[in-house]
Every structure is written in C-alpha cells, then in structure tokens.
Amino acid sequence: MANIRDVARLANVSPATVSRILNDNQIYKTTDETRERVLRAVTELGYQAPLKKRPHASVQETSGFSVGVLLAATKGKYSDPYYLAILGGIEDELARLGGTVSVIQTEQELEDQAILNRLLSAGLSGLIMMRPLSEPLFEQLHSLIPHIVGIDTGHMPIDNVEYDHLRVSRMAVEYLYAKGHRAIGYIGGSVGDAPLKRSRRYRSYLETMADLGLEVKPEWVLNCGWDDRKCISLVEKTYHDHGLPTAFYAASDLMAMAALRALYQLNIRVPDQVAVIGMSNIEMSQYANPPLTTIDVPAVEMGITAARIIAARVRGDTTLPKRVLLPSRLIERDSV
After folding, report:
1. Greater confidence, 33 or 159?
2. Is the alpha carbon torsion for 55, 119, 305, 251 positive or negative?
3. pLDDT (tens digit, 9 = 90+) per residue, 268-318?
4. Are residues 173 and 184 in contact, defined by beta-carbon separation less than 8 angstroms?
5. Which superkingdom (predicted)?
6. 48, 72, 280, 293: least surrounded by Cβ within 10 Å?
C-alpha cells in the first residue's frame, strides 16, 4: 500500500508538502501546478490518507463551510427534475445553516482526471452524493473529504438518506391490481451499464407480480435506460409487435410521461385502454395529459435531511452513521 513518501517521490515534493495539500493547510502557500502534481500522484498510487479525528466545532467556527454535490444524471447534467428537486432542498437548507454548495459534478465528469483533481483540491468540508460509486473512487473521495452523506446510495460507513424502493414498486403494482389490472408491464432502467435485474424497483415489481399470481411477460418489460425518446420508441414498437398490457408501472415520472406521449401518438386512450402509474411525483406530473397518478418520493425533504446531517457532521457530530428512511405515498390523479 502506498504511503505519503511514495506520493511525495512521484510528485517530486517533500512529504510535508503532500501533507499540507491533503489537509488544505492555508498557512503555507503552494502553486496550483504543485497541488495538481500531488493530487495526480495520489490518484495514480491509490493513496489513502489516514483519517484524523476532527475536534468539535461551534456553529460560529463552521459558518461558511462549503459542500460539494455529486449529481446523478442520465442525460444532461441538469435535465432531471427529480434530482434538481433534491439539489434545491440541499442548497436552501445549507444556506439556512450557513453553508454553501460550491461544487456540483456528476459521476461521469469525475472520469476526467482533471475534474476529479479539482474536486479533491477544492477544500470541501463535505460531499453529498446521489449515486453509488465504484468502490475505489468512493474510498479515494472518503479518504480526502472529511464528511460524506449519501442520498439513496447504500454506501457504508457513511450517513444515508433514502426511500424504500421495494415499497414504492409494491404500492404501484398493488394499486393497479386493485383497479382490476392483471396484465401489468414495467418501464424503467438501471444505473450505468448494470443489468435491469440490479434495479431494486424492478426486482420489487417481479416479486409483487409473483405474490399476486400475475404473469410477467418479457415483451412488456421495457428497459429504456432512463431515456425518454427510447421509451417512446419502445412503447410504439411493443404495440406493433406484441400489443400492450392494460397497465404500465413506470419507475420514474419522466418515463411515465414519455409513455403517455407514445400512447397519445398511437391514439390509445389513457386510462380507458392503457393505464399508467409513475414514480417520484415531479412537479410537472400534475400537468401531464391526463394528470399522472404516481408515487410521491419526498425529493426536497431528502435534500434538506442530507444538508442537516452534513452540517451536523461539520460541527462535530461523531455519532455512528445514520440511515434515514423517508416515507412515500400514493398520489391519485387521472392516468389510472
């Protein structure tokens, strides 16, 4: 395992300089070029700095602290209203608590070494992440950023704020069943290149269908990769090749609204011929045609809760990592 002397040797600096840069010591100034060399060496060697116990700090001492946010993004960085709602909750609550969001990146952007180095050298007091990371990248961030809070990530040993994926899918399928539907399809995706079976929402859909004694037809399981245009195309193709189920559970409101668009283009009446239920309750879902029945996931509250936890950590909270599970609820509108 690499040590601080290995990093210093590769970066052509002294071990003391490495220590100052990794601990963001502002007393001794270093050039941007030196900082870049050190962080590049840290990355290449996979060096993990020893974690130091931080003294308890007062609210006054931590006012003005800065936090980075790692967005989950399937397309454009700011294109998903669900994640933007979480970000809004984080920013508003941090502002109230005396902090700021100073860096916003996506996992894909961190594949660029220069962007990763800038994140590591930003002097952040904490990081809030909205997507699970590869173990090496997570460990590297965790070794250099004092406090990390996950939103729906499952990473340990850090604080996590989440909702019950298994429960929301069960709520959606059971609601469709109660409305008389027995032919229920699924629309969703998975994270990155992971297979659909890795999705907790999809696994819960399968389990609930089995518990209800309903058949899952593969041709009615549409893996859109969280791409709305692909979703529209797959719904249309399924209609022409196999026919459609009487209802779809879409594992995000954006996919549900794309399905509504496809059904409209096919002159299929919703909910008379095909019902659609979504998941997340983004603001625009109430303005869909017809207004979308969905499962409300408290996105803003997740952001607020994560901001409160990381502010408490910056102020010296050293209790064991928390897992905060926020409730979801059914929003009945006109698409079922």
Report:
1. 159
2. negative
3. 999 999 999 999 999 999 999 999 999 999 999 999 999 999 999 999 999
4. yes
5. Bacteria
6. 48
User: What 3-state DSSP class applies to 301?
Assistant: helix
Q: Please give the share of the chain, as a percent, with pLDDT higher than 70.
A: 88
Instruction: Report domain extents, the chain.
Output: 1-50, 165-297
| Architecture of the structural domain at 1-50 | Orthogonal Bundle (1.10)
- What CA–CA distance (Å, rounded) separates 42 from 28? 20
The more confidently predicted of residues 54 and 106 is: 106
The secondary structure of 16-58 as a DSSP string is HHHHHHHTT-SSS---HHHHHHHHHHHHHHT--PPP-PPPP--
Q: Which amino acid is at 137?
A: L
Residue type, 1: M
What confidence score (pLDDT) does residue 52 get?
A: 44
